[in-house]
Every structure is written in C-alpha cells, then in structure tokens.
Amino acid sequence: MPLSEIVNIFAGNPLDRASERRGDASWIAEKLEDAQSLAVAVWNGKVLIEDAPGADGEPSGVQIAYLRADMAKELAGTDERLLFMGLWKDIAVFAVDLEGAADPSEGALSGLGRFEELRGAAATLPAPDAGILGTAKSMFEWRRKHPFCANCGQKSEISDGGWKRICPACHAEHFPRTDPVAIMLAVHGGKCLLGRQAAWPQGMFSALAGFIEPGETIEEACARELKEEAGLIATKVRYHSSQPWPFPASLMMGLIAEVDSDQAAPDQTELEAVRWFDKDEAKALIRGEIEDAFAPPTLAIAHQLIKTWCESDD
Questions:
Q1: Strand, coil or helix: what is 186?
Q2: Its pTM surpasses 0.85
Q3: In this structure, what DSSP letter does residue 144 have?
Q4: pLDDT in tens, 143-161
Q5: SS (H, E, C) 251-269
Q6: Residues near 17 by Cβ (< 8 Å), separated by ≥ 6?
Q7: In 3D, which of 124, 118, 125 has the Cα closest to residue 247?
Q8: Staple 83 to which of 48, 68, 162, 213, CB 3.0 to 4.6 Å?
Q9: What range(s) does the Nudix hydrolase domain occupy (predicted)?
Q10: Nearest Cα to 95, choosing from 36, 128, 135?
C-alpha cells in the first residue's frame, strides 16, 4: 500500500529489504545456492531486461529478466560483486554487478534478455521493477566509487550482503551514500518558472534544483537555490513528493515554492535561460505542443511538479 498519493518512478521498491538478515553470512550463502532464489543483473550500469508479454501475445513494455541466484554467484566470482536485495515473500532476491567490454547477453547470458540503459527502459518498466533496478544500480555505483577507506586509505571489504564496507586496517565502517537534492517549481501570479542549462537538449525546460548543503533544511536549500540561480526570494515552500534518482544516487525532494516577484534572471552559471509559463502554457508544454520548448519526460519528478501545479486550482 503506497504511503503517499504520489509515487514517482524508481520509488515503490516492493521487496522486503530484510535488513536483519544482511549480517547473517551463512543464511545469505544458503540463499545464493537456493534454486528458488533470483537475481537481477547490471552490466556497466545497464540493466538486464526482456519484453513483457501482452494479453494478445505481443510485447507490452519490458520487465526484469531474472536470473537464478546461483548463476549470478558464478558470474560474480566474488562477493564484492553481489548484493542481497531483499525478499519477495519467501524468495531471496540478489543483484550481480558485471563489468567488461563484452556484452554478457551475447555470451554467458545469451537468450536470457538484453542490457539497456535504465533511464530509457524506465518509461515502460512496471513501477516495482523500476524500483528494484534503481536500487541495484545506485548500490553498485556506490561500490564502484568507494573501494577504499575514507579514513585511512586502505582497500575496504564488502559486508552485510553488500550494504556495508569495512576497512580491515582501521575497522572503519562505510555505508551507501545518498545525495539529497531540492528540486522546486517556483510560482507567482498564476505562472510557474522553468529554466534550462546549456548542456540540455535544445528547447528543454525544467524545474530548478540543487544539492542540499550541510546544515540546511530542505526549505532553506530551496530558497538558496532560487536566489542563486534566478534571483528570486521564496516566501512559502510546500512539499510535493520525493524520488530516488539512480544517476548515480540522489534523493530528489520535490517542492512547490511561492516567490515574491516574476523578475527572474538566470545566473548564466547554472542556468542559461529562464521562462515563465501560465497554466494553459504549462499544460501545452507537458503535452509537447509548444514549438520551441518541451518538458522533462514523465519519469522525472520535475514533470510531475509541473503537472500537479497546472492541473490544480491554486
């Protein structure tokens, strides 16, 4: 049962994370050999998927292409590349991180699925599958970028089913990092403000956003980013929803922020342009009906912020 009326893509991982089982190495080893246990596969950041059969026998989107866990263990070769994801009812689910130039779906995993970028596949994945794959991708990005102890510099070792790293030299414990981001739709006088960065596809406009700094609340970060990027003063901030964003490992805090004026100016560092849209224009934007501008895709929380605001009575 959803805890919020708004569930964004990559949220809603349905697995029981069973964190109390992570430290039981013998139980995890047993489950890896269990013929019922399953695994998802990630190769160089891409995820293993397959076509989902529709009612008429034709593909209707995509779904996770599961492996047997014992096969994933053999492919991994070491616990360093394995992650205990949790339980689906009584079935243990793992993930395996594969690297290298050769596509495993053309070798050891031939006929079992294909590897695709998660960002593209998410649009047609079932929401639970997207949540599972997003978790696996974020965890493996953390593992790949943090192989050494931040305290003493020695190589750390995997522990707790992949959810912790321990330094054998100084015994420091290291846990996965999630970067909090405030992403806000600024509104004033019946219009919303969107901006664009130079690196984005031509014509794309989105909500403003920035990382939350130490010592800041979510609301304070929102106000700071609006002032820095667009020269606007926030007068009221309300929470909309959140979204895990596995590119590589952020948690997007979606906000709608009332501002004191419509005199916005892009800082030319983060943003090259800003533009106000009234509700009719915002509706046209998310429908793709504005010739020189378009909104972020539906999988992005920015799209949902725009949609919520332009369809509201506020």
A1: strand
A2: yes
A3: H
A4: 999 999 999 999 999 999 9
A5: EEEEEEEEECCCCCCCCCC
A6: 85, 86
A7: 118
A8: 162
A9: 176-300
A10: 135
